[in-house]
Amino acid sequence: MTSTSSDRRERAVVLTADQVGVLGELATPELRTGHWTRLGEASLLGDRVTEGVLGDVAERVRSAATAEGYSVGWAQGRRDAAAIAADERRQQAVAHAAEETRREGEHVAAVEALSRAADDLRAQLALLADRVERQATDVAWRITEALVGREVAVATGPDVVRRVLAVLPTHPLVRVRLHPELAADPAVRELTDHGVEIVGDPHLGRADALVEADGSVVDLRIDQAMGRVHAALFAPTEVQA
């Protein structure tokens, strides 16, 4: 039993040349470390100087990138703010223009309404003036009719004679036509003293007279005189002018 144990301890393993080569090629663990140098050549891995230089470079790059990013962000922010402000100004300008257009439209509408109201007022005033004028003319005509009617009602022979004498021409007369009752009035004798021929005419009123001389006639009939007054009162304005 003892001999067997010795054989086991003394037994050796003999390796061939190929096996030795394979064992030599087995990777050994890398014990060096480096934050920045691990990204470069293996000979620089863990080099403190290189790590320091690369760390400084990375810090400067990071600072520069941060500054550039801040600058770009600031510029972009300013551009965005300017764009927003410009858009707000455009919106305000559009709103202002719309408000001005609305106000202008309201102003034009108000002016047109006032113009129409003024035209309507002028038309109403013209109608009112015409109505007042017609009423005044009617009143004047009625007053005239009343006054003339009163004068005719109380007219006497001397009144008619005075009217005839007022229109007697200077040349010789032919005749004077009067109402038959008036022709016999004693006051008419004054006309015969002037060489006037008195003719009774039943178609004439008591206050009427027709003075005939050398083919001309002076019409002193009341209704004819009233007709002329009526025509003058009620004639259109342009005709009167």
Automatic annotation (TrEMBL):
A Pfam match: FliH
GO cellular component terms attached to this protein's record: cytosol
Alphabetical UniProt keywords: Bacterial flagellum biogenesis, Bacterial flagellum protein export, Protein transport, Transport
GO terms of biological process kind: bacterial-type flagellum organization; protein transport
Flagellar assembly protein FliH/Type III secretion system HrpE domain residues: 110-224
Family, as annotated: Belongs to the FliH family.
Function: Needed for flagellar regrowth and assembly.
Stated name of the protein: Flagellar assembly protein FliH/Type III secretion system HrpE domain-containing protein
